[in-house]
Amino acid sequence: MAKQGSVRFLPVVPAALIAVAIGVAPAGAAASLAPATVTVTTTADLPSPCPGAVSLRCAIVSADQAGSGVTIGFAIPSSDPGCTGTPRVCTISLTKPLPPLSASDSAIDGYTQTGSAPNTLPLAQGDNARPVIRLDGASAGKGVSGLVVTGATDTVRGLSITGFITCFDCTPIPGAMTGGSGIEVRGTGDVVAGNFLGLLPDGVTAAPNEFAGVHVTGKNAGPALVGGSDPASTNVLSGNKQCLSGDCVGFGAYVETTGKRTVVRRNLIGVTASGTAALPNAATSVVVLAAHVKIMDNVVSGSGGDAILTAGTGVMVSQNLIGTNAAGTAGIGNHSHGLDVQADGNVIRGNVISDSGDTGLVISGTNTIVQGNKIGTDITGTKALGNGFDPSAIFLGQPINGTDGIVVCVGGNTIGGSGAGKGNLVSANRGDGIFLGGDQNVVKGNRVGTDRAGEATLPNHVDGIGSRPFVFDGAGFCQQAPAGPGGSHKIGGTVAGAGNLVSGNLAGGIDLIGTHDDTIAGNRIGTGHLGTAPLGNAGAGLILAGICNEHGCTPSSNNQVTGNLISANGEDGIDIDGTGGGTGNRVAGNHIGTDPSGHPSLGNGGAGVTVGGQATLDVVGGPASSDANVIAGNGGPGIVVGSNAGDSGTNVAVQGNSTFANGGLGIDLEPAGIVNCTTSPPGPNGYLPCPVITSASTTTVQGTACPGCTVEVFLARAGAGDSGHGEGARLLVRVLAQGNGAWTATLPGGSVSSSDQVTATATTPASTVASHTSEFGANLTVGTVALFEPGRVGAPFRPGTGQITAGL
Fold it and tell me: Are 567 and 535 in contact (CB under 8 A)?
């Protein structure tokens, strides 16, 4: 078998043929044995035998008779009637189908013709090949392909093949298409390299084959190599097209076989030979309906449909430029998706997928790995080439209305990774950066909405990462996907490199509607890569919300939000809406409105955390030191509970957090800005009465609270919007109120001084129907201090497992 990385210039020649070629026949050799090289000398389509000039038809017959080891070369004189133009291009116009090339270890080499030359340029500079042998099928009849290769380890190179016609009614199967390809590969180990398939030798003019440039087909066909690793191997597979009643076919490469491990490598597909302009294949440029195929190092742009569609298992798509010019610096958009993955176990690695009319990458199979790609940018990761430029398009009668960078239709896929080079850059797309359907998807180590360095914005036009139920309800490109709610996604992680950077997007950072049991951990949302620069999302940093529609209500429940840095966003840092019965969400160990050190210099525009919409059993903070959030510097209150004063169904436990320097109360039970320590229920958190501190010293604080409630005593840092209630900058001690409501707390030594203030909250027992917390009680003034003291407030906070690594 030929090596899959290179073009074979001289095929292996059996000893018997070498002997014949030099005029010495071995014992027993047939006198009619063909020579090792057969030279085509005419463009005429002469039938076999050819006693004078040798036609391509005669040459193939001769090679097939020899059985193996034959090179078919070309030496057609420039005076031949079929040779025209400058440079001279010799066109072989077929009048009927050629016989298949059944010989093995043989080659058809157009670069043997005088005036021809293979490509010498790196792919980024296009293809300067000069094929001067053209095979045209306009007069060959319907259902005919240019060359059909059935032998093993054969090579076809150096040809322009054009004009072959598909037949839709040439078989008993209604609608089945036959022929119409430049080259059909039906053997094993065959190589197609250095050809122009679907365009003239000038490299810019389409001369379509109606089905495909190259078609790997037939039972057990392959592995084939289309292209190769060196410049001379590059094919240009462009301009193929046939349209009926508005629906079009026309593919660059079409691989459908039970054989495995075909490689499509280093080709220019859907563009001119220069790689600078579109020369569209009318439908999808590369279709794979076979297993374990590799599509690598190609330029796949300008397609009338998808750039690449894979429906075989174990396919690898790597290091391609999809939707750009050959240099990767400007867009040459594909009309539909950049890449459509419809089978399991595919690996998508190291590609640029940009400037698609629809979504950049659609995943409908499970166990897909997507790593190291740039989706929505140029090759440098600094210029916007967003996907979704034509969301109103119709293709094959179906709406293609996605505008996202990545859409994951089903579960069990991995987007990114925690190791070096595994994260994706997903930015500048006209919808969401990443949209999640299904369940148990992993999204980690990505940069979403920024440039490659993570310190400047390239915003996705909606959310950075989003999810909604029933979006795929029998319509659109995910119509086979589950329609209902998804969940159990892991977005980020606690190990180094696992967190995502989700910043600069024009709506929310992470917006999860109707999902459940998600883990959102270790991400940086609204900042730069280092966590010190404000690159806020225009909306909230994180949204967890339910939804009610014609399908009923789908709540957002049991999600874990831990160890994130969520700062500098235009609205709330975190917004949790319990619509539909949302319950059990936990927010712990996060920095919200600060930099990684806890300094309140990157506040969110709204509240730090808002929980409402009849949310129950949600927890902000918790009893362990690692549960505490730092919530500071935000434009609104630190924590808002309730959507309005009538939201009596919302019951949230708020414990152990450090809140300071916010623009409102540290804990604010709606209505906003009003101290509700003595307001009668009903209302958010049942308007639980605040503790009353009756006395305080540097060692002991005493007061009253609801009997059996947990009282948390804080070092207070009063601000302009606190009305003398909080904020609770640092938890000092936790104590249980007695049956009569009295409590006494012994303070750790040296935790307060005579210049400090203290405040307290009360939380009902966990055994209650839904544990909930009061606002901060009135501060007891021991003295007056500055609003923010890094050594007293930021330093004592220990996030524990909620480490702000973000893996960036």
Answer: no
